[in-house]
Fold this sequence. Notes:
Low-confidence stretches: 215-219
Number of strands: 12
Distance between the termini: 40 Å
Mean pLDDT: 90
Number of helices: 12
Helix content: 40-55%
Amino acid sequence: xxxxxxxxxxxxxxxxxxxxxxxxxxxxxxxxxxxxxxxxxxxxxxxxxxxxxxxxxxxxxxxxxxxxxxxxxxxxxxxxxxxxxxxxxxxxxxxxxxxxxxxxxxxxxxxxxxxxxxxxxxxxxxxxxxxxxxxxxxxxxxxxxxxxxxxxxxxxxxxxxxxxxxxxxxxxxxxxxxxxxxxxxxxxxxxxxxxxxxxxxxxxxxxxxxxxxxxxxxxxxxxxxxxxxxxxxxxxxxxxxxxxxxxxxxxxxxxxxxxxxxxxxxxxxxxxxxxxxxxxxxxxxxxxxxxxxxxxxxxxxxxxxxxxxxxxxxxxxxxxxxxxxxxxxxxx
Length: 332
């Protein structure tokens, strides 16, 4: 673990995301990343894009029992939330981010992900070491970053002059991240770094553009907003979630076609409509069982047509059966 002296009294250590590494070992997170210096991911050769600590994405299909608590990284960190939601905090703000948001964290800036745990989402990131040893150090960009010096200086000035480092992404940035994901999936040690270098330059260019936009007012797709309200209603009302829903009547309820409803639900929750509905129902069933309800009764009350299907869904989501869950409560 590397350490940097930021003033005469403080030595900061770079976090290496050990909770994420443990989650990957347990197969509860899908990770596609390139990394060095102890970060989780496929290991990069020594001379491969010097300065990149880690770049990649995770895909988290269901809520987790871990988070990335208060920590610091040695480099500039850019993240993009592709789907789902995540709680993001710095010393000056705490936000529950929705899909499409970008965060920009300066070298050694304290931040955390999760409150305290991580919810279902798909998140991209880049951590680029700029060789910052103390607060007033000039940022030393890798030689393969080919943006004009005026653009780089403008970027640094914008970052230092605002506390709001959360922005909306645009299509160009989103496509850039997805190209990076495909590159990483096909990566082998002998792979050329040229394409990735181009994409990172492009990514930083688009990030600079987002920072230059002073008007950060969000323009919400009305159909997406309607679906978001409906999903929130399902979450807050077990009785509503227990009704006989399928993608057709859920889409009709929101006034959108089935394909749009599916895509909006995936964007908002990182789950398909059926998986999200089952997630809500299983959470309710656990509360019912805790309060003494029989397993079969809990299944029917939550909207499952058979106890067998309920048991299958419960086991797939929780990793143990309803009977095992109930027995564990009796032992307490």
